[in-house]
Specification:
375 residues; alpha/beta; Aspartate Aminotransferase, domain 1; Aspartate Aminotransferase, domain 2; four-stranded antiparallel sheet; 15% strand; binds pyridoxal-5'-phosphate
């Protein structure tokens, strides 16, 4: 038998791999109770019925390969975002595009810069491309943009900015982002990862601030790529569709690195239909804005620090072993995320659910934390 460790390059051997939130099926099997999944920032309202219908309508055509360039979807996205179609690349989720971006821009000796405690895919894609990820300490639970600017060097090619940030839910609003971009040298592409933009935009309206001018930067021809996804507010996480918008020349390189035919026929149909169902997305976004406060208030009343969120989840510091709390919550039928893998072993992230789900969570959380307190 071969010694595979000798065949696999060093940077691949050292890869950590993605640790997903526990699936409903797995959690229910373990805990023997019906569970609510509040672990992976999916919407509790499901896909748009129009998207479901659109997928059903194309299922019988699935003997044919999909349109490799997702032409119709690109055209629609370009119109919606007022850019040219060749500035849009559609991929099987935005995580997949992150991998493409890292492979296109990084190699051994080059680096990307991001914040500590940000999206867990950034280190994976950077290392898989043979690059190094520089992580800057957080400031107020979010990105320290001065620190990020100071960490950039002549070997930096990418800045990954999750906005809002996952798992802390914090945002960098438009003005500080403008000031940051003015400091970024020409050898660096700034990835504005806006997976939660629909939620953030609503919070910004309610809070009277400007969330992001990201698409404006693209229209001005800046070194910026905006990432969006259908996985969150549109409820299509299981279907895998995301996209990037950026300079046409760069996007053409990214398009060449896509896995051929990776955005399936149902995925393209679902995304097109979801774009037409604004009412469905608005319902998810409105519920999220209302319920975020209820969750934060409920957690705070029990004496724990919950960070105000701009996304569809709440980051909470427990000062207790979060993995143990997650296990107890699972026994009560709630799956949340303990943040040890993010270097926060006493913090959890809870996805905002329906009013009923949040009520069930708050009751279970109270019960579990009271047990922890008397332990
Ligand atoms: C910050 C951030 N970016 C990107 C994604 C990727 O989403 P997808 O690959 O489902 O499009 C996520 C998903 O959790 C995320 O939190």
């Amino acid at each position: 038998m071969s010694d595979f460790s000798k065949l696999v390059p060093d940077h691949v051997r050292k890869l950590g791999g993605y640790i997903p939130g526990k699936s409903l099926r797995q959690a229910q099997k373990e805990s023997r109770v019906t569970c609510i999944k509040m672990a992976s920032n999916e919407t509790p309202y499901g896909p748009s019925p129009r998207a479901v219908q659109a997928m059903q309508a194309v299922l019988a055509d699935c003997n044919l390969y999909p349109d490799n360039d997702a032409s119709e979807l690109r055209q629609k996205l370009a119109e919606r975002h007022q850019v040219a179609p060749d500035q849009v690349v559609v991929t099987a989720g935005s995580s997949s595009l992150l991998g493409i971006i890292a492979r296109a821009l990084l190699s051994p000796g080059l680096n990307g810069v991001t914040s500590e405690r940000s999206f867990i895919v950034y280190p994976i894609v950077t290392q898989a491309a043979g690059g190094q990820l520089i992580t800057v300490p957080m400031q107020n639970d979010g990105f320290d943009l001065d620190g990020v600017a100071a960490a950039i060097n002549s070997n930096t090619r990418i800045v990954f900015l999750a906005n809002p940030n996952n798992p802390t839910g914090t945002v960098v609003t438009a003005d500080p982002l403008d000031r940051f971009l003015a400091k970024v040298p020409q050898n660096v592409i700034v990835i504005l990862d806006e997976a939660y933009s629909d939620f953030a935009q609503r919070f910004a309206e309610l809070r009277g601030v400007e969330y992001s001018r990201s698409l404006g930067y693209v229209r001005q021809g800046r070194n910026v790529v905006v990432l969006r996804t259908f996985s969150k507010a549109h409820g299509l996480a299981g279907v895998r569709v995301g996209y990037g918008i950026g300079p046409a020349e760069l996007m053409a390189y990214f398009a060449r690195l896509r896995t051929t035919f990776s955005v399936s026929v149902p995925a393209q149909a679902a995304a097109l239909a979801a774009l037409e169902d604004g009412a469905h997305t608005r319902r998810a976004v409105e519920n999220n804005a209302e319920q975020s406060q209820r969750l934060i208030d409920g957690i705070s009343q029990l004496g724990y620090r919950a960070v105000p969120t701009w996304a569809n989840f709440v980051y909470c510091e427990l000062g207790e072993d979060a993995a143990a709390v997650a296990k107890r919550l699972q026994a009560e039928g709630i799956i949340i995320r303990a943040l040890g893998p993010w270097g926060a072993p006493t913090a959890i992230r809870v996805t905002i659910g329906t009013p009923e789900q949040n009520g069930v969570f708050l009751n279970a959380f109270k019960k579990v934390m009271e047990q922890v307190a008397v332990k």
